[in-house]
Design brief:
This protein is about 50% helix and about 5% strand. The protein is an alpha/beta fold. It folds into three domains: about 120 residues, HUPs (Rossmann fold), CATH 3.40.50; about 110 residues, Serine Threonine Protein Phosphatase 5, Tetratricopeptide repeat (Alpha Horseshoe), CATH 1.25.40.80; about 150 residues, DNA Cyclobutane Dipyrimidine Photolyase, subunit A, domain 3 (Orthogonal Bundle), CATH 1.10.579.10. The longest helix has 19 residues. The structure holds a DNA duplex.
Length: about 425
DNA sequence: TTTTGAGTTGTTCGA
DNA sequence: GTCGAACAACTCAAA
């Protein structure tokens, strides 16, 4: 008997760690743990918990069809996983690697407990195409600039790294069961079941990906895949998407490379989850005006592109990528509010929230990240609107009072804010 | 070691 | 309307 522990890989098809477990063992028992150390910190209506619960329920049915009982637990995995492994006399626990600092700490604790029980803990690469030290500079150190990283990434890419792990193989290695255990209900775990907005579909539109480079910047149309949520929880395979990108659209593939890049940055520079990637930017004294932050959160800044984006986020848990850049630039440059405040707000609201990509994106916008926009590059929300939503279709969808007297006045004046941002950054970066 | 070219997504100003 | 330069000079990657 061995365990296969699902985490951010809520799928059976094309699952690297699951494949390894089945291939090398006779009796594989799949498990999942609703992690109280995470759940206890979430609001009780968090939509992502509903998403996970639904996907777990779906997985449970798929496993049941294969004659297997997918066992789902609720508790602290650093205690539960070794306990279950011990009780079932498992010789190993298989899983897919997770590179976030908290996940690494959790897995270290699990590894140590399992080691004491003489049980192996085996991780597979599944969440990214290239991980850890697979894409490095010639001198063996990690990249911090995207373009040369992406060149090396593409050079290294071949069909081996994009292969699909066949889910129909070695199915008799699943531990058979004639009975089915229960999944803890949302209610039992203290969570509500009310869904505010439908989740984006896992099915992707090939046409959208084929035209991605032409349409991705227009928030009023479906020009992006909207698969972030599914990539986050592994309900879709990154290898499958990378194959599509390779065939259909180089720009789309490049966005997937950004995802690997930010995962690698966080892995090699874990300080960047909390502090500026470039230490000199920690000298910036943010104005951090609560009142203005509230206006930004609520979508009441008086800048239509910013307000539309924030209201879309609040209503759906999603925001178009172009608009994410606009609202992030506005918060950090126009309002001079700490990027971490924005990052934290996105973490609460975005269904597709991913620590590495979110921190990377926010630091890019604030100018303090690796390969960031120079600080004097300040988005003008009005010209962004002109360029990417000229007919205000996106804006009117989320800000229906746009163009009427009831729409709020701008909370800061653009020209002043722009000049203030540039001189503020310049002053604090050069004060020694 | 030194040199060289390049660097996600922008804006504004003045010719 | 269009175009190039300034924004600010810096750091990274590779030869």
């Amino acid at each position: 008997m061995v365990l296969f522990w699902h985490r951010r890989d809520l799928r059976i098809h094309d699952n690297a760690g699951r494949y390894q477990a089945l291939k090398n063992n006779r009796e594989v028992q799949p498990i999942f743990v609703f992690d109280t150390t995470i759940l206890d910190r979430l609001p009780k209506n968090d939509q992502r918990v509903i998403f996970i619960h639904r996907e777990i329920t779906r997985l449970k049915k798929e496993y049941a069809k294969l004659g297997c009982d997918f066992r789902v637990f609720y508790g602290d995995p650093t205690k539960l996983v070794p306990q279950i492994a011990n009780e079932t006399k498992a010789s190993a626990v298989y899983t897919n690697r997770d590179y976030e600092p908290k996940a690494l700490a959790r897995d270290k604790a699990v590894f140590e407990s399992l080691e004491n029980l003489n049980i192996e803990f085996k991780g597979s690469k599944d969440h990214v195409i290239f991980e850890k030290n697979e894409v490095l500079k010639a001198d063996g150190t990690p990249y911090s600039v995207f373009t040369p990283y992406s060149r090396k990434w593409l050079e290294k890419l071949n069909s081996f790294y994009l292969r699909s792990y066949p889910n129909e193989k070695y199915l008799d290695s699943l531990h058979p069961s004639t009975t089915q255990s229960e999944i803890p209900s949302l209610k039992e775990m203290g969570f509500g079941e009310e869904l505010f907005h439908p989740f984006p579909s896992r099915e992707f539109d090939l046409e959208v990906i084929a035209l991605y480079d032409q349409k991705r910047d227009l928030p009023s149309i479906k020009g992006t895949s909207k698969l972030g949520l599914h990539l986050r929880f592994g309900t879709i395979s990154i290898r499958e998407l990378a194959r599509v990108g390779q065939k259909k659209n180089a720009t789309y593939l490049k966005e997937l490379i950004w995802r690997d890049f930010y995962q690698a940055i966080l892995y090699h520079f874990p300080h960047s989850a909390q502090n500026s990637f470039r230490p000199e930017y920690d000298q910036i004294e943010w104005l951090n005006e609560e009142h203005l932050f509230q206006l930004w959160c609520e979508g009441k800044t008086g800048y239509p592109m910013v307000d539309a984006g924030m209201r879309e986020l609040n209503a759906t848990g999603y925001m178009h990528n172009r608009v994410r850049m606009v609202v992030a630039s506005f918060l950090t440059k126009h309002l001079l509010i700490d990027w971490r405040w924005g990052e934290t707000y996105f973490a609460e609201k975005l269904l597709d929230y991913d620590l590495a990509s979110n921190v990377g994106g926010w630091q890019w916008a604030a100018g303090c990240g690796c390969d960031a926009a120079p600080y004097f590059r300040v988005f003008n929300p009005a010209s962004q609107q002109q360029k990417f939503d000229p007919e205000a279709r996106y804006i009117r969808k989320w800000v229906p009072e746009y163009g009427t007297p009831s729409y709020v006045q701008p909370c800061v004046e653009h020209k002043m804010a722009r000049e203030r941002a540039i001189s503020h950054y310049k002053y604090h970066l050069n004060k020694g």
